[in-house]
Specification:
This protein is an alpha+beta fold. It has helices at residues 29-39, 47-55, 77-91; strands at 6-13, 19-24, 63-71.
Length: 102
């Protein structure tokens, strides 16, 4: 079911409370995006997540995944990224969280 859903998602670090906001708007939806985290040991090449896991391979078990917003199937990548950026701003995940500053 998650492979047919596009959306904005949240990864919470249950140890620190820091947040990472991302969006899934590709063909495989949220399932495809989250599968990329699994296949990369939990980081999906995000610099900050990668650093945490390189210091402690089991750190990924602190990550909790949730969906913040479902997006229409017809949404464009630009529109999805705008929604993602709105959540990053509201939740402060660029300044105080796990998103890399742009």
């Amino acid at each position: 079911m998650l492979s047919s859903i596009k959306g904005v998602y949240l990864i919470s670090d249950s140890l620190t409370g820091k947040l990472y906001v991302g969006s899934a708007y590709g063909e495989d939806g949220i399932w495809g995006r989250w599968s990329q985290y699994v296949s990369t040991n939990g980081h999906r090449n995000n610099k900050t997540l990668k650093e945490l896991i390189s210091e402690n391979e089991n750190y990924r078990s602190n990550f909790k995944f949730s969906i913040l917003m479902l997006l229409p199937k017809t949404i464009t990548p630009d529109e999805a990224i705008k929604k993602e950026n709105l959540f990053k701003e509201k939740l402060g995940s660029n300044s105080f969280g796990l998103n890399n500053k742009n």
